[in-house]
Write a structure and sequence with these properties.
Layout: E1 4-5, E2 13-17, E3 20-24, E4 31-34, E5 42-45, H1 46-50, H2 58-78, H3 81-91, H4 98-110, H5 116-125, H6 128-146, H7 152-171, H8 173-177, H9 186-194, H10 196-215, H11 217-238, H12 243-246, H13 255-258, H14 261-289, H15 295-323, H16 325-344, H17 350-364, H18 366-379, H19 384-409, H20 420-451, H21 468-473
Parallel strand pairs: 1-5
Antiparallel strand pairs: 2-3, 4-5
Length: about 475
């Protein structure tokens, strides 16, 4: 009986590089034989159905909506810590040092992400829906109990540690799900989703400042806690995945990815970006106050920062889809470095600080939507969850230490130049971030040339060895056949 073969040829694909010829053979497990009723054998490639990304659909957009709302409630709400921080410092609420408060803010931002691989594994054995709901529940408990704290160690545990784990559990699963639903407009929708941080930052900073003035800090935290649990519960019910088609891996640690050159460069990019980003974000209010303005006027700086986030992330997503997330990242963070040196350091009036807050908010938060768009370009969609979880470890650890570094670098005397060293640190961090993005871009361009511009979502060539010479040659490459 004659066998009919309906699929791509299974012959090896050959790629040539400076070190010789390397053969790549597709995994036979991705093909399955099916026996039709007429007795003929048909071999069907599951790759086509697995990676036929729909670019939308109802459930795809529900995932984007959930990403937007969890960004709104988690990261947007977390920016309000600068308001609490300013209040604690002004009234010496817990008889603690500024470093204590900064450490708590850092713990809330990043301690849970140090355990992000465990979160990834938890998603694998339960579901993204459960993990998001559980994270919302932890945030509710953290915020509600923090309203009754009397000692600084209690605030460390509630607002710091517990809040950090809640943020991580809510924030880890959804950004890794959205790329399963979008291909052509992937960066755009990811940055649209992460743009919820901006709206949340605007609303929470304005509302919490008003609530504190009228009813005090305790009630501000209680109200925030109830808003968090309601939003997270709704979002946990709206999430849908395409795991049955993509077959993602939920390894806590994937050493094959962890020690690869492009992933290590991406981790360096994350370290420098987060050190600069969090230091800048947490310093804006007090930096404005140091110029001689009130805490209320200082709070407007962080509000404008969040206005920039709200408008900027979807806008930069459009450019990211057109030119590629890595290319746009390099441009954005080189420009962010320039803003720190040219605006923040010489700033001596309210208008300059407001303009700086708006501009830096517009571009610096690009990292949060860019990571889930860049990772598939390096390792493919199947390993996205594992790679994303490991990346969050570095992102979280950087977030923990950033506020402490910011306070340590500021001068003791309250004066216009109090935050000069902080601004210099942020500027250098953004510059190194741009450089790392440039190296990662050169690597991807070189890999594309070696593999014949294959679809990176499939991850077929994620472990190809790219000669360092080719990476250096492509550092300043401007035009490329495929967006990077």
């Amino acid at each position: 009986m004659t066998a009919e073969i309906v699929s791509k040829d299974l012959s090896s694909e050959k790629s040539h590089n400076d070190e010789g010829i390397r053969e790549y053979t597709r995994d036979p497990e991705t093909f399955m034989g099916e026996k039709p009723s007429d007795g003929t054998m048909t071999r069907v490639s599951t790759r086509a159905s697995d990676f036929a990304i729909p670019d939308g659909t109802f459930w795809g957009w529900m995932c984007v909506f959930s990403y937007f709302m969890t960004s709104f409630i988690c990261w947007g709400g977390n920016t309000a810590f600068s308001i609490y921080l300013s209040n604690y410092l002004e009234h010496n609420t817990f008889n603690a040092s500024a470093v204590d408060y900064a450490t708590i803010g850092g713990l809330a931002f990043g301690v849970g992400f140090v355990f992000a691989p465990v979160n990834t594994y938890l998603v694998g054995i339960t579901s993204a829906n459960f993990v998001v709901f559980f994270g919302g529940l932890l945030q509710f408990v953290a915020l509600f109990t923090s309203s009754y704290c009397k000692e600084i160690w209690q605030l460390y545990l509630s607002q710091g540690v517990l809040m950090g784990f809640g943020l991580a559990l809510v924030s880890t699963p959804i950004p890794a799900i959205v790329p399963q639903w979008f291909d052509k407009y992937r960066s755009r929708v990811l940055l649209l989703g992460s743009g919820g941080t901006g709206l949340g930052g605007i609303m929470f900073n304005l509302a919490i400042q008003k609530i504190i003035e009228e009813w005090g800090v305790a009630w501000a935290r209680r109200i925030q806690s109830f808003v968090v649990i309601v939003v997270c519960t709704v979002c946990s019910l709206l999430i849908r995945t395409r795991d049955e088609k993509i077959k993602p891996e939920f390894k806590a640690i994937d050493t094959q990815i962890l020690f690869s050159f492009p992933f290590m460069v991406m981790l360096l990019w994350l370290v420098f970006t987060m050190l600069a980003y969090v230091t800048t974000q947490y310093s804006m209010t007090n930096s404005t106050v140091a110029l001689g303005y009130s805490a209320s006027q200082g709070s407007i700086t962080i509000v404008l920062f969040n206005v920039g986030v709200l408008i900027g992330r979807p806008s930069t997503g459009v450019f990211s889809d057109k030119f590629g997330p890595v290319t746009v990242s390099a441009c954005i963070y080189f420009f962010s470095s320039l803003l720190c040196f040219a605006m923040w350091i010489p700033a001596r009036n309210l208008a300059t600080m407001y303009a700086f807050g708006l501009l830096v908010g517009f571009i610096t938060g690009f990292v949060f939507g860019a990571v889930p768009a860049i990772v598939p370009r390096i390792v493919g969609l199947r390993k996205l969850q594992a790679a994303y979880g490991m990346a969050w470890v570095i992102l979280g650890a950087s977030g923990v230490v950033s506020p402490v570094i910011g306070l340590a670098l500021r001068k003791d005397k309250v004066e216009p130049g109090q935050y000069t060293w902080v601004a210099m640190f942020a500027g250098l961090g953004f510059f190194m971030s741009g450089f790392c993005a440039l190296v990662l871009r050169a690597y991807i361009i070189a890999k594309d040339k070696l593999t014949g511009f294959k679809n990176s979502d499939r991850g077929e060539h994620s472990q190809i060895k790219v000669p360092m010479g080719m990476i250096i040659e492509n550092l300043l490459t401007v035009k490329h056949k495929k967006k990077v």
